[in-house]
C-alpha cells in the first residue's frame, strides 16, 4: 500500500492514495504539522516564536473543524459509509483539538507552572496527534473518493441498461427516443470519467482511461449509424454483424473504465502489460550496472536468463515478413554481440566472486561498459526499424485509396470488387497491427506502450467493420444511411492513422530525450496542415457534449421529417439538407438556413395573426443564428484559445439552428395540414420552389472554415 505524501514517511497512513486531488489536499496539512514537529529542541522561546506556533496550531484546528463538518455531511448522505466516515471524522476532530492544546503556548510560563503539556514539553504527544490527524483526514478523503467511484459505477450501469434497450429496438421512432436518453447518459459518464482521468496519479491508469474513453467517444457515432442502418435494412446480415461489433466494443470499453477506477478486474486478476523490449533492456542495464555496487545482489544465472528472454522478444522483428533482409541481419548480429559481451561479463563476474572481491574489478568494469553499449546499440537499431516501418506505412496510406475504392464499389453495388478491396484492406490492417506491436516494444514509456496497444486493437477491430459496412452498401447501393455508416467507419480509420502519426512523434521525442507538444496534422488534401492545440479535459468535454447534442438533434429532425405526408415539400427538403450538412460545412449550413427563412416568411403571409407572430419570431432566431455562423466561419483565427472559441461558437450556433428547425417542423406540418383542410390556401411545394432562387455554393465557400466534419473538431 502506498503511504501519504508526508515527507520522510513518519506519518504513513496505511491507505493508498490514487488521486492527485487527495494528495494535494494533504500537502498543506503535512507542511503545517511538519513545521510544528520539526522545531529545534533548543529553540529560543521568544514572544514572536510562541505566537507563530500558536497561530499554526489554531489554523490546523480550525481547518480540521471545517473539513470534518463536510465529512459528516457526506456521511449523513451515504448510509453505507456513515459509520466508517463518522469514526474517521471523530478521530480527526479529536486530533485537531489535541494539536490546538499542545500549541497553546501564549503563556508558556503558566503552562510549565501548572504541568500542562505543550509542543515543547511533549514532543511524543505531538507526533502521536499528528499521526492520528493525518491518518484520519486521509481516511475521510479516501472514503469521499469512494463516493466518486460509486457515481462512475452508477453512471456506467445506467449506460449499460440503455445500451441493451438500444440493441433491442425495432422501430426508428423508438430508437431516436432511447438514443436521446443514451446521449444524455453518455455525456454524464464522459464528465465523470474525464475528471477521474485527470485526477489519477498513476500514468498507466491515465493512459488506459484515455484509451477507453476514446473508444466510447468514437463508438457513439458508430452506434448511431450502424443501428440506423440495421433498422433500415433489418434482414441484412452484414449490417447486423457491423452493429453487433460496435455494441460489443462499447461494452468492453465500459468494463475497462470500471476496472481502472476500482483497480480490479472482472476475473479477479490484475492484468499486467506484456514486457516490452525497451522495458526489458532498461531492467537488464539496471541489473548489470548495479554490479558496481554489489557483486552478490543478483545471480549470474538470473542475468543470463533475462538476456535470453530479451533476445527472444527481438524475434517479433526478425520473424516479421515486412522486415528487410538487411535489417534482419543487422538485428541478429547485434543480438549475437550482446550475448558475447554478456557472457564475457559473467566470466569476469564469477572470477571476481571467487576472489571474494568487495567491488567490481577493472576487468569487470570494462565488461559492464561493453555490455551496456551493445544492448544500447540493439535498442537503437530496433527503434530505427520500427519507426521507419511506421513512417513508410503512414505515407503509403495517406491517400486512403483503398477506402475510396470500397466506397465507390459499394455505391456501385459491386460485391465482387468490394471483396477484392476488402482483401487489400485486410492486408493493410495486418501491417498496421504488426507495426503497432513493434512500436510498443520501443515506445519508451508505459503510457506510450498502452497507447500503442490501443492503436493495435483499434486497427484490428475497425478493419472488419469497414468491410461489413461496405458489404451492406453493396447490397443496398441506393441507401443513404448505409453510405453514411461506411463513411463513419472510414473516418474512424483515418482518424486512427492521424493518432498513429502523433504517437510516432511522441515515441521519437522520448527516444531523443524531449517531450514536445502534440501536433495533429489534418490528412485532407484540400486543407492546409495545421498544428492542433491539445485541449484540456474541460474543453474536450465541452466539445464532445456539444457534438453529441448535435447528433441527437439531427436524429430529431429525421424523426420529424418522417411524419410529414408530403415528403417532397420544399420545407422538408431544406430541413433535410440542414440536418445532413450540420456535421460538415458550416457555411453551407448557414446558406441553407437563410433560404429556409425565406420559405418561412412566405408561409407566414398565409397565416392568421397568432400563428404568423410565432413563425416570424422563430424565423428571426433562425436568421440571427445563420448570420452569426457565417461571420464565425469566415473569421480566421490562430492559437489554441481562439480556435477553441471559434469551434465552440460555431457548434453553439449550429445547435441553435437545429433547435429552431426541430421546433418548427411539427408546427409547420400542423399548420399546413390545417390550412389545406380548412381553406386550401397554401401554394404547392412546386410553386414555392419556383419562387425561391437557387443557392450556388462556391468552392471558396466550402473551404471557408477549413474543416471536413464535426468529428474533426
Automatic annotation (TrEMBL):
Subcellular location(s) of the protein: Cytoplasm
Sample GO molecular function, one term: actin filament binding
Database matches in Pfam families: Vinculin (PF01044)
Any GO CC annotation of this UniProt entry: cytoplasm
An individual GO BP term: cell adhesion
Stored InterPro entries: Alpha-catenin/vinculin-like_sf (IPR036723), Alpha_catenin (IPR001033), CTNNAL1 (IPR030045), Vinculin/catenin (IPR006077)
Key words, A-Z: Cytoplasm
Entry similarity comment: Belongs to the vinculin/alpha-catenin family.
Name this polypeptide is given: Alpha-catulin
Species this chain originates from: Cyprinus carpio (Common carp)
Amino acid at each position: 500500500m502506498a503511504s501519504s505524501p508526508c515527507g520522510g514517511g513518519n506519518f504513513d497512513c496505511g491507505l493508498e492514495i490514487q488521486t492527485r486531488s487527495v494528495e494535494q489536499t494533504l500537502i498543506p496539512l503535512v507542511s503545517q504539522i511538519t513545521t510544528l514537529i520539526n522545531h529545534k529542541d533548543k529553540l529560543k522561546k521568544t514572544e514572536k516564536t510562541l505566537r507563530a506556533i500558536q497561530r499554526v496550531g489554531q489554523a490546523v484546528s480550525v481547518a480540521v473543524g471545517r473539513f470534518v463538518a463536510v465529512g459528516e455531511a457526506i456521511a449523513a448522505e451515504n448510509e453505507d459509509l456513515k459509520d466508517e466516515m463518522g469514526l474517521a471524522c471523530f478521530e480527526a476532530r479529536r486530533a485537531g483539538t489535541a494539536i490546538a492544546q499542545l500549541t497553546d503556548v501564549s503563556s508558556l510560563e503558566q503552562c510549565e507552572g501548572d504541568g500542562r503539556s505543550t509542543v515543547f514539553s511533549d514532543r511524543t504527544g505531538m507526533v502521536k496527534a499528528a499521526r492520528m490527524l493525518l491518518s484520519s483526514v486521509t481516511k475521510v478523503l479516501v472514503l469521499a473518493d469512494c463516493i466518486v467511484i460509486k457515481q462512475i459505477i452508477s453512471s456506467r450501469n445506467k449506460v449499460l441498461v440503455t445500451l441493451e434497450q438500444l440493441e433491442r429496438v425495432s422501430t426508428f421512432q423508438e430508437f431516436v427516443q432511447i438514443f436521446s436518453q443514451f446521449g444524455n447518459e453518455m455525456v454524464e459518464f464522459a464528465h465523470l470519467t474525464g475528471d477521474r482521468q485527470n485526477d489519477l496519479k498513476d500514468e498507466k491508469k491515465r493512459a488506459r482511461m484515455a484509451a477507453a474513453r476514446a473508444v466510447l467517444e468514437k463508438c457513439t457515432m458508430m452506434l448511431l449509424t450502424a443501428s440506423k442502418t440495421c433498422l433500415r435494412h433489418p434482414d441484412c446480415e452484414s449490417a447486423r454483424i457491423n452493429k453487433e461489433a460496435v455494441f460489443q466494443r462499447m461494452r468492453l470499453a465500459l468494463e475497462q473504465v470500471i476496472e481502472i477506477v476500482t483497480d480490479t478486474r472482472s476475473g479477479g486478476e490484475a492484468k499486467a502489460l506484456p514486457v516490452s523490449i525497451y522495458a526489458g533492456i532498461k531492467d537488464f542495464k539496471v541489473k548489470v550496472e548495479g554490479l558496481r555496487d554489489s557483486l552478490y545482489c543478483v545471480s549470474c544465472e538470473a542475468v543470463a536468463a533475462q538476456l535470453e528472454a530479451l533476445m527472444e522478444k527481438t524475434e517479433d522483428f526478425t520473424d516479421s515478413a515486412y522486415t528487410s533482409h538487411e535489417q534482419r541481419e543487422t538485428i541478429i548480429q547485434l543480438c549475437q554481440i550482446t550475448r558475447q559481451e554478456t557472457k564475457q561479463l559473467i566470466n569476469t563476474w564469477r572470477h571476481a566472486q571467487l576472489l571474494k572481491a568487495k567491488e567490481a574489478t577493472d576487468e569487470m568494469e570494462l565488461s559492464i561498459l561493453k555490455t551496456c553499449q551493445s544492448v544500447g546499440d540493439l535498442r537503437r537499431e530496433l527503434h530505427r526499424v520500427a519507426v521507419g516501418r511506421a513512417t513508410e506505412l503512414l505515407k503509403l496510406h495517406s491517400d486512403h485509396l483503398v477506402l475510396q475504392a470500397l466506397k465507390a464499389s459499394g455505391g456501385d453495388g459491386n460485391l465482387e470488387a468490394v471483396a477484392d478491396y476488402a482483401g487489400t484492406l485486410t492486408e493493410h490492417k495486418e501491417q498496421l497491427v504488426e507495426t503497432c506491436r513493434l512500436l510498443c516494444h520501443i515506445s519508451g514509456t508505459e503510457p506510450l506502450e498502452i497507447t500503442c496497444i490501443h492503436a493495435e486493437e483499434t486497427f484490428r477491430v475497425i478493419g472488419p467493420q469497414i468491410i461489413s459496412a461496405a458489404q451492406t452498401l453493396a447490397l443496398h447501393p441506393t441507401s443513404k444511411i448505409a453510405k453514411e455508416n461506411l463513411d463513419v467507419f472510414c473516418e474512424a480509420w483515418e482518424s486512427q492513422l492521424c493518432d498513429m502519426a502523433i504517437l510516432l512523434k511522441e515515441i521519437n521525442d522520448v527516444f531523443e530525450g524531449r517531450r514536445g507538444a502534440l501536433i495533429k496534422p489534418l490528412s485532407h488534401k484540400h486543407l492546409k496542415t495545421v498544428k492542433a492545440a491539445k485541449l484540456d479535459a474541460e474543453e474536450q468535454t465541452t466539445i464532445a457534449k456539444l457534438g453529441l447534442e448535435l447528433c441527437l438533434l439531427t436524429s430529431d429532425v429525421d424523426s420529424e421529417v418522417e411524419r410529414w405526408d408530403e415528403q417532397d415539400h420544399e420545407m422538408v427538403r431544406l430541413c433535410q439538407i440542414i440536418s445532413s450538412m450540420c456535421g460538415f460545412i458550416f457555411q453551407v449550413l448557414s446558406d441553407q438556413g437563410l433560404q429556409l427563412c425565406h420559405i418561412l416568411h412566405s408561409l407566414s403571409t398565409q397565416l392568421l395573426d397568432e400563428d404568423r407572430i410565432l413563425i416570424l419570431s422563430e424565423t428571426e432566431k433562425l436568421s440571427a443564428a445563420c448570420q452569426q455562423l457565417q461571420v464565425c466561419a469566415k473569421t480566421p483565427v490562430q492559437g489554441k484559445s481562439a480556435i477553441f472559441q471559434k469551434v465552440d461558437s460555431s457548434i453553439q450556433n449550429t445547435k441553435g439552428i437545429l433547435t429552431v428547425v426541430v421546433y418548427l417542423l411539427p408546427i409547420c406540418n400542423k399548420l399546413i395540414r390545417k390550412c389545406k383542410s380548412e381553406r386550401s390556401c397554401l401554394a404547392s411545394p412546386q410553386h414555392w420552389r419556383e419562387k425561391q432562387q437557387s443557392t450556388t455554393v462556391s468552392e471558396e465557400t466550402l473551404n471557408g472554415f477549413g474543416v471536413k466534419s464535426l468529428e474533426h473538431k
